[in-house]
Design a protein that fits this description.
By secondary structure, the protein is α+β, with helices and mostly antiparallel strands. The chain contains 17 helices and 32 strands.
Length: 709
């Protein structure tokens, strides 16, 4: 069955307080005390397979009393627990410290500290189980026993495995001095008075019998491990931002740190970073999510944006395959590694998205604007042209000039835009739209792709090509306004349905249309007014669907919730059309929500009004950290700075509109081409240094951003 792709329910809930550790495509969900509870969504996952479904530490067959949990790095945690008092004792004397490191498996250093004056004797047992369930099964709560499972044990080792469908998955658990038994490793320990005992346990994945090199080998100090060095380099090499507002500073630091944790590396090109969509369930490259994140964070790390473009280009479609929805030129939706994923639609790469392909071309244009490795961008031009061929041949299946989607089989995603839940596209009266569906924002993305391709052509000296692509953008904008504008309502339709009728709900999609520049100038004031209306603006951001619509539900996934990235894109669109105060209100609302969440924005939050509840209401199954939510605060700072680069035309635009209470702002080492720029804003005065030769500072947008520019 195709449950992995077509599942339309809610992801398995991660219990409040659960600890999430991530590094690359590995992640671990655990109890606050460090145990992985069987029968839950918790576990240690490697390449989309759960290699530990239970992990429990016991002292003399007793649970520990949890004391504290510390997560100093995204991949590292320290769990403190106390042994329970023995009969006749009034106070416990054994402190248990579990230092956990996640990355290509797991390392756990267990330290027993005896705080008493007598030697403490105990039996420490680690109990392990592995169901080797695919991530999709766990996420959707449908885990079932499959294949032939095996258990082997010896001195200091326990190995669990599963054979299924001709593939083998396993895990080796090893610790010197332990006695292995089916399902457990046991240590007989005597801890001296006021002394300590320490032992390291390695959990190593096995894929088809091949052991994966551990990220935290015992023979190397932890600070020299690959994840540590990569994380340190990420934090040290990017731009440094300081602001007067303490809460905002916390949010920006947390956002950058989370983005670093969400980086994954293509096994075939290990020095090429890309960004995963989010933890815990989406630690994989996603076309739409990864591109939008890369766009939002491009000034922070251009290498991440270029790596994302390169890897997606490598997986660009080359043939027609209804099972995976691959088509020539199409950019994939999702890349997975698990056994189950390969069975879902016939392969580990699924292409069922309508927007990743135009957004890919937009990303190439932005890389050129910011001066990121011009030759590398030029090398990707054939992929841009194949993407545009897909848009006009396969995306526009009926030749009406709009890109629409309809899944190729019953196995695919029913909705293939960013609101991809089964009920995410509906009329004002709540009727679910019938495919093929042409989404408003997708036409905007195509418009932006045409403009990006025009700039790429101009940079290559192809004036005729640049004029042709600008002409396509102009014509698309004209037809979009003609078919999508609803004069009796004063807003753009969310989509056109299969009968070419407007899907007339009032929704946040219009904000994306502003961002892409497809909105007619005379319509923009009405769009801006609606985005900040009480129906759409919650005080924490822009709702996905207005309160006046029949399908509105503030606790739904896409029909009234607030998605930070959605609001961030709307803020950028408002700023693009000159609605500075509107953009500032949206940006402040989202950043206030971030502060309320301790600096980490979740994937989405409930759409309740700020006047109703003075704290944002979390959405229970929200990913955290999640890539485009993590990138949103950095993106909003760019929006509030009015920062837009166009190096082909020798321009850097800065038109600051930061709220006064943010205080002074200083950005050091902002990458711009081969230069590193310093930007300071204090008491309304802007100071910029380090611009590349031939680049001028301006407060006006580059004319090439308009289709008739």
């Amino acid at each position: 069955m195709a449950e992995g792709w077509t599942f339309a329910g809610e992801s398995a809930r991660v219990d409040t307080g659960a600890v999430t550790l991530i590094e690359g495509s590995s992640f671990c969900l655990a109890e606050p005390g460090g145990d992985i509870a069987p029968g839950t969504s918790q576990g240690l996952f490697y390449r989309d397979t759960r290699i530990l479904s239970a992990w429990r530490l016991r002292l003399d067959d007793e649970e520990l009393d949890p004391l504290s949990t510390m997560v100093p790095e995204p991949y590292r945690a320290v769990f403190l627990g106390r042994a329970r008092p023995r009969p006749g004792q009034t106070e416990a004397t054994l402190l248990v410290e579990r230092r956990r490191f996640v990355g290509a498996g797991m390392r756990e250093d267990v330290v027993l500290r005896n705080l008493g004056n007598e030697a403490a004797a105990c039996v420490l047992t680690l109990r392990a189980e592995a169901d080797f369930a695919d991530l999709f099964e766990v996420k959707e709560g449908r885990v079932r026993h499959r294949g032939r499972h095996g258990v082997e044990h010896g001195d200091g080792t326990l190995e669990l495995s599963r054979q299924w469908r001709g593939q083998s998955r396993g895990v080796r658990i090893a610790a010197e001095g332990a006695a292995g038994a089916p399902g457990s490793l046991t240590f007989r320990v005597v801890v001296p008075p006021r002394g300590t005992w320490e032992k390291s346990v390695l959990v190593t994945p096995l894929v088809d019998g091949v052991e994966t090199p551990t990220s935290f080998p015992l023979e190397r100090p932890v600070e020299q491990a690959g994840p540590v060095k990569r994380n340190t380099a990420w934090l040290e090499t990017g731009p440094r931002v300081s602001v007067g507002d303490e809460a905002l500073g916390t949010t920006l630091r947390r956002s950058r740190r989370d983005l670093g944790a969400l980086r994954i590396f293509d096994p075939e090109v290990p020095d090429t970073p890309v960004v995963a969509a989010g933890a815990p369930w989406f630690m994989a490259l996603f076309g739409r999510d990864s591109i939008l994140t890369a766009l939002m964070a491009l000034p922070t790390d251009p290498r991440l944006a270029l790596g994302t473009a390169r890897v997606l280009a490598r997986y660009q479609g080359t043939r027609v395959d209804p099972m995976t929805e691959e088509e020539p030129g199409r950019i994939p939706h999702e890349l997975r590694f698990g056994v189950d994923a390969s069975l879902v639609l016939g392969g580990n790469v699924y292409y069922g998205t309508v927007d990743a392909t135009p957004l890919f071309v937009v990303l190439l244009g932005e890389l050129l604007r910011w001066g990121v490795d011009r030759e590398a961008v030029r090398a990707l031009l054939p992929h841009a042209d194949r993407a545009l061929e897909w848009i006009e041949r396969y995306g526009d299946r009926d030749g009406d000039g709009f890109v629409e989607y309809r899944r190729a089989t019953d196995r695919g995603l029913a909705n293939q835009g960013w609101k991809d839940s089964w009920d995410g596209v509906n009329d004002a009266d709540g009727r679910i739209a019938e495919p093929p569906i042409a989404l408003a924002e997708v036409q905007g993305y195509v418009h932006a792709a045409y403009l990006a391709r025009a700039l790429l052509a101009e940079d290559a000296g192809d004036a005729d090509g640049a004029a042709r692509w600008r002409g396509k953008a102009r014509e698309l904008a004209r037809r979009f306004d003609e078919r999508f504008w609803l004069p009796e309502k004063g807003w753009y339709a969310m989509a056109l349905d299969g009968a070419k009728r407007p899907v007339d709900s009032l929704a946040s999609n219009m904000g994306h249309c502003l961002w892409s520049g497809i909105v007619a100038a005379e319509r923009a004031p009405r769009v801006a007014e609606h985005l900040l209306s009480p129906e759409l603006f919650s005080g924490w951001g822009v709702r996905t669907l207005a309160t006046s619509m029949a399908a509105y539900n503030p606790m739904s996934y896409h029909n009234g919730s607030v998605w930070p990235h959605d609001s961030g894109i709307a803020a950028a669109g408002l700023m693009r059309y000159g609605f500075t105060e509107h953009a500032r209100r949206v940006a402040e609302a989202v950043l206030d929500a971030a502060a309320a969440f301790g600096g980490r924005l979740p994937e989405l939050l409930c759409g309740f009004d700020r006047a109703e509840y003075d704290q944002p209401v979390p959405y229970p199954a929200s990913c955290s950290p999640q890539a485009w939510a993590s990138a949103t605060p950095l993106h909003l700072m760019r929006v509030l700075l009015g920062a837009e680069a166009c190096l082909p035309h020798g321009r850097l635009r800065l038109a600051p509109a930061l709220p006064e209470h943010f205080g002074p702002l200083r950005v050091v080492d902002l990458p711009l081409g081969d230069a590193r720029v310093r930007v300071e804003l204090r008491d309304g005065r802007l100071d910029v240094a380090g611009l590349p030769p031939g680049v001028e500072l301006t407060d006006e947008p580059c004319p090439c951003t308009a289709f008739d520019g």
